Each structure stands twice: as C-alpha cells, then as structure tokens.
Amino acid sequence: MKIAVVGLGLIGASVSKGLLDNGHEVYGVDIDQDAINYCEKNKLISKGFSDMGEVLEKCKIVLFSVYPKTMISLTEKYIDKFKKGTIVTDVSGVKKEVVAKMQRLLPTDVEFVGVHPMAGREKIGAEYSDPNIFKGANYIITPTEENSPSALKLLEDIGIELGFKKISYLTPERHDEMIAFTSQLTHAIAVALVNSDKDPDTYNFTGDSYRELTRIAMINGDLWSELFLENRENLIDRIEEFQERLDIIKEALKNNDRKTLITEFEKSTKKRLTLEK
Amino acid sequence: MKIAVVGLGLIGASVSKGLLDNGHEVYGVDIDQDAINYCEKNKLISKGFSDMGEVLEKCKIVLFSVYPKTMISLTEKYIDKFKKGTIVTDVSGVKKEVVAKMQRLLPTDVEFVGVHPMAGREKIGAEYSDPNIFKGANYIITPTEENSPSALKLLEDIGIELGFKKISYLTPERHDEMIAFTSQLTHAIAVALVNSDKDPDTYNFTGDSYRELTRIAMINGDLWSELFLENRENLIDRIEEFQERLDIIKEALKNNDRKTLITEFEKSTKKRLTLEK
C-alpha cells in the first residue's frame, strides 16, 4: 500500500522503516532536507518529498508524525489536495481535541482515525529511529462515531505489522484520561524531582532507582508543553490525586506513624505486583 | 580474613558470596535455619550459625545485614562477646542515628564503621541473592572522628573486592541528607503514584515510563518504614521541596502558561543529561 508519513523525526522515521519492512511503499515528507536525505540514504523511506501536496494524491494512508498543532495547520493548508477515500491518521499523545478538530476539518469523504503508539525514546531525530521500539508496546486506536470498521481494521493491521503487542480501542476522551496518569503525570513527576534537587553533589550518590525515575526528565519541551496543555484538565486532576497520596506519607512521617507507612507500602507493593505478570 | 555476616537475606547472602569468592572465610548467622541451609547448600557461606555469640570470637570483621533496630538489639544482647580489635560494620540505608548508637554501645576497643552499599533488588531472601548487584554501584563509607584510618582502609578494600564502581566518604549526617533525596524520596514518590491510581484499567495502558517509575513501589514495608522514620526530618524537607516544584507545573497548567512549562522541561533535561555522562 502507498503510505505518506509526514514528519521524519524519531517516530516518523521508525514507523516508515517498519512499514517499508512490511512491503509498503512509503513516501516521507519533511521540511528539513537533511532529514529526507538521511532517510533516503538509510533506506527508511521509499522516496522523500519536501512538499506534502505532492504525495496526497498518491497515497491511500496519510500518517502525521508531527506536533498536533502542526498537523492541524498542515491539514488546513493542503485541505483541497486530500484525495477522496484517503485514511488520515496520527501518532499524537493527546486525542480529544485533536481528533475532534481533524474530523471537523477534513471533507466527509476523507476519514481521520486517531492512533497513539505508546513508544518513544529520549532522543529526537531520524538518526535515532528504530522500528524495534514498537515491539511489545501498547497501541491505542481512538475511534469516534465517524469512523468506519474498514478504516479501523486498516490501522489495526498496521499496528500488528509494526509489532505492537497489544492493540486497544479507547474513546478519545477515555484515552486522554488514561494517558494523563500513565504518561503525563509520570513525566511531570520526573521533571519536578530533578528540578527540586538543590545539591550539587547529588549525582555522585545516585542508585538505579533515581536514574530510572528521572530518565524521562529528559523531555522535548516544545512537544510536551503542547501535550500537557491539550490535556490540562485531566492532568491537573491526576497531579492533585498524586499530591494527596504523597501528603499521606508526609503526614505519617510528621506524626511518627509507622502503621500508616506500612499500610501505604503494602498497598503499593500489592498493586504494582499485578503489573509484573 | 574471617568475616561474620549477620543476617542472610538478599544483601547478606550476596555480600557473603562476594566475600567468599575473594578468598575470605565467611560465617553466616541467621535465626532462620532454612536460610542457613540454603546458603550452605549453595556455597554462599563457609559455615552457618544460628547463635551470633558463637562467631564473635572467631572473626576480625562483623558485618550486620539486618534492620537497624535489630542490629542494635543484637549488639546489646551480645555486648560482652565482642572481641577486642573487631571491626563492626553494617549495610543500613540510614546512618546518623545508627552510627551514633552503635559507637556509643560498643566498647572502645571495638570499632564501628558505617557503610552503605547502594544496591538492591525488589525481592527479599537469600534465594534472590547475587553478588553481581554490587558491580558498578556506589559504596558509601560514613566515618566519624572515632574511626581509625586502618579500619576505613579495610572497609574500602572490601568495597573494591565486591566490585563497587565508586567508593565515597560522607559524614553520617551528610549521607542521610543525600539519601533522603536520591533514595527515600524516589521510593515515596513511586508508592504515592501507584496508590493514587483509581482506575482499574490503567495497567492495560502503561508504557515503559510508568513501569520504570513504579518498580520501586514494590517495597519491604517493615524495613522501609523504619528507614523513613529514622531519617524523617530530611525526608519531610525533600518531599516539600519536590511538592513545591510540582506545584509550579500544576500552576502553569492552570494558567495555560506554556512558557513556564518549557522552562521547567528545559531545566530538567539539561540537569538530567549530566547524569548520562
């Protein structure tokens, strides 16, 4: 199948190579000629283009791997070039606003399906791309009433081809609630933890736990500030629920209350163990 | 050298095997006969004892690998059996109170040196022991004015033999300040994060970041509640500093303040990158 991948960053280039390995023809689009050259030279795409308009009439699927706001402005710019019957999809980490906007924007004979491949690295750029990051990861499709079974099936097949372990369906609203906890809150915590450190010697005395907990404090500020703000209401709620729980530990320390500490530790141990299975 | 290791749990058995591999004679002590049998059968110790009194007169070094309070009560119980010139050490994750108490308790011709090997696993028991957990990890010696250069050198040599990458000296007070941040705060955060989750479906939608961040939420409640309370003042301060920093992110979300989010993300990225080197 002919697929356009718009945005040849870490995820875009990884998806492109994964699709290419599965026999698809992949047209990569980027405004950065270096990214195109890199992807062509390393055979991550079939062919590169700097103008999105050129590929829209060639492809059955258009996959955006750019910031949500960029996807929307590109769609507005090229709105007349989308071919009837095209399936448009994305990789955004937030869905409610984005899916609604894209479905409103596109003509009725062009279908948008939101997809969130839950994989990534703390690097940016095609040089760090690797289709193996998808192996074993979660892939969430966020359908709405406007989607057709055939388009959903097509995106599901792509998820399977890319090697995702688990393919789930969630409404865009439910997706954003979930992601506020499992992804955005964890990033907020890691950032706050690193930034709260006032001691210049800390890094001489870290163990594995600190390193693991703060790996995601290395974060693309432009992208994540957009994702955070797109999902701000859910994220504020999750931060507050987390703060309440941390306050329980703090109060127990203030009151020398060992029983409460043990209760909290036993609860988290039991709950987290279910994830090991 | 003849070394007594008191407490054949995960750390005690790992240390024992590491010392045995370096040619020492290791006498393992535990009240649990099954632990002794396991360690003897798997050649993790030279010989096992259920009564600590029996080994005190044989050994140059006595290494406690039990909870801080248990070390103190065992020392009180066997106080008359410690041989002149013995070096006593431990593996506790908190130092200020523990080192002061042990140095006060022991006779002047028996020397206590605090050591914190910064390694561990989310499992308990000799069955999960592995001397490789020390390879590449941090090893902190916490001397006081009462320690002799020769005893410190002895403990340093043991750290080297066990394969620790970095051996540091910190006062017990400074150690506890540091560990409140790099170890205890991270555990408090992981526990609070897991316990704040109210959604039964969460575990179907986790990525690597959530799994890494919450690994240490599987925690030995008896041990860690003791460690937390022994270091409560430092830990309360670190929790509050972390909360202030998380509030900055929360307020930025409430105010739709992208600039502050980007500033926080750039700061954490830059700071955390120094740990990658």
UniProtKB/TrEMBL annotation, chains A, B:
Organism from which the protein derives: Ilyobacter polytropus (strain ATCC 51220 / DSM 2926 / LMG 16218 / CuHBu1)
Start and end residues of each Prephenate/arogenate dehydrogenase domain: 1-277
Where along the sequence do coiled-coil regions lie? Answer: 225-259
Q: Name one Pfam family in it.
A: PDH_N
Annotated GO biological processes are:
tyrosine biosynthetic process
Could you tell me which PROSITE patterns the record lists for this protein? PDH_ADH (PS51176)
Q: Which UniProt keywords apply?
A: Coiled coil, Oxidoreductase, Plasmid
Any keyword RNA-binding?
no
- Keyword Kinase, does the record have it? no
Q: What is this protein called?
A: Prephenate dehydrogenase
In alphabetical order, the GO MF annotations are: NAD+ binding; prephenate dehydrogenase (NAD+) activity; prephenate dehydrogenase (NADP+) activity
